[in-house]
Amino acid sequence: MTTPFAQQVTFLYTADLAATSHFYEALLGLPLALDQGACRIYQVSADGFLGFCKREGATPSGVIVTFVTQDVDGWYERLSARGVPFEKAPTFNPLYNIYHCFLRDPNGYLLEIQRFHDPAWPHKPG
Predict the structure, then answer these.
(1) Rounded distance between C-alpha atoms, residue 100 and residue 82, angstroms
(2) How far apart are CA 91 and CA 75, in angstroms?
């Protein structure tokens, strides 16, 4: 077996980097890990990152960004209090054995805040 990767970054495009930065920094409270000018990279977890790069005509297409936490209700309450609209309030999904809610960022990307109920998650190497 190969050594697992040390970090993970998902890059998405945005036509409005200022609105995107405000959402992820001020509303979600993610720390800015690196500002490259046309791209901004946010730290989501110890080794997971989400980057946005300015690109005219950028549109979301079949992407769901999932943030995993034990505190789905707390995130829902905090973001709702900040005026963030949700597409789906927290609910249990028996098909996937998860508790989750959905919202959209300023670019239209679908965001999911989720807690796994399956004891097999997360799978740890070794």
Answers:
(1) 19
(2) 13
| Domain hosting residue 73, numbered range | 9-116
* CB 86 within 8 Å of CB 80: yes
Interstrand relation of 64-68 and 110-116 (parallel, antiparallel or unpaired): parallel
pLDDT in tens, 67-108: 999 999 999 999 999 999 999 999 999 999 999 999 999 999
**Cβ atoms within 10 Å, residue 79:** 19
**Does residue 89 lie in a domain region?**
yes
Distance between start and end Cα atoms, the chain: 10
CA distance 37 to 40: 7
